[in-house]
Amino acid sequence: MIKSCLSCHLPETYETIEFDKNSVCSVCTGHKYKKKINWKDRKQKLDRLINFFKGKHDYDCIIPFSGGKDSTFTLHYLMKEYSIKPLVVRFNHGFYRPLVEENNQNTFKKLGVDFIDFTPNWKIVKLFMIESFLRKTDFCWHCHTGIYSYPIRIAKLFNVPLVIWGETQSEITSYYSYEDNKIEMEDEEKFNKIRTLGISADDMFSILNNHYDNIDRRDFINYTFPSKEELKDLNLYSVALGNYIPWDYKKNTDIIKKELGWKVGELEGVPKFINSNGEKTECFMQGSRDYIKYLKRGYSRVTQINAFELRNKRKTSKQAKKENKKYDGKEPHSLKILLNYLGLTKKEFYKIISKQVVYPNKMKISKQKSKKMSDYETWFKEKKN
Predict the structure, then answer these.
(1) Which residues have C-beta within 8 Å of that of residue 192, sequence separation ≥ 6?
(2) Which of 11, 38, 232, 325 has its CA 20 to 30 A from that of 217?
(3) Which tens digits make up the pLDDT trace of 191-204?
């Protein structure tokens, strides 16, 4: 029997979660603490931070950007509130969907920004995917590391000390809590703790160099966080906007829909009425990531979205439980594409995951398939030679 949070229904297999004596999870406890925070004071800290850096460099700040709801809101908020000149930076992981590109173009043209889009070597990305899946059953190592290290490297390259991210980790995990009452810095320590899956770029180089020919060490640079020595002259200040203003996914999404015409896309495995805020709709591999989570940990994206809704009292416990049971855990159509990328059969896929199931969950292979997404035929599929 898996123990779940009495308040939001996240299970004990959720990463970093802990329960208090009332069976309420640490993420919910942190969320309640938000009400005690002096947000006016934190907003004034943000004002001072922006004003300190504004106008002193070619760009006022770097804004890492995916085109999802959080990064779009961050860009819109900072430009509207402070009239800053940002450099928008995207690490293109290779799985972006057509609607996110449409949203991005619309956002950039309405706001007027400079944008850098970096696409890494696909051949080396595929090697990262298979090796991280074999070791951690998470094929997104290149994304986890790249989206956080590349913008910092761009900050160094352009000599822009201020980097502003979107949501705070306190909203989704217990690695860092609102109760810490400290500015959440995206530094090397945090990068290694949360982003790398315990596999550094040096580790990955050693792994691949031992198994494949013609591995170039330079292909790994953009997956490494710059060292303190590299950053000593930059005086980097890398923070999350969600530490300075109260973060509300629904309200934020409503704002960018109204102000920017941002469109909510589909999410594989999650009905539209559950994902009305546009959670994780930019990546066409998200359905497979969530399915792996279900196999390993016994819950998936529906449960996670409903946890947000329950904390904000926008859904009843009974309704959330019913939806979680009904919709979580169906096999996604994107799995076929993923297996082709990884060079695995479905049998091999399940066997690898079965060895890393998180106790006390027991892996349940779904006999149902989720709905095929309307843009499925546009997703990149490799042709076999």
Answers:
(1) 200, 225
(2) 232
(3) 998 999 999 999 99
Sign for the pseudo-dihedral over CA of 164, 170, 176, 181: positive
What's the CATH fold of domain 39-243? Rossmann fold (3.40.50)
Say how far residue 116 (Cα) sits from the centre of its chain.
19
The pLDDT, as a whole number, for residue 77 is 98
Pairwise CA distance, residues 257 & 76, whole Å? 11
User: Quick one: pLDDT at residue 30?
Assistant: 87
Scan for tokens 């469109």, then name that residue. 263
What's the whole-model pTM score?
A: 0.96
Residues comprising the chain, all counted: 385
pLDDT of amino acid 383:
78
Contacts of residue 262, Cβ cutoff 8 Å, sequence gap at least 6: 69, 72, 103, 106, 107, 253, 256, 278
**Ranges of the chain whose pLDDT falls below 70:** 180-184, 384-385
The tokens for 30 are: 């942190």
238 sits in which H/E element: strand 237-240
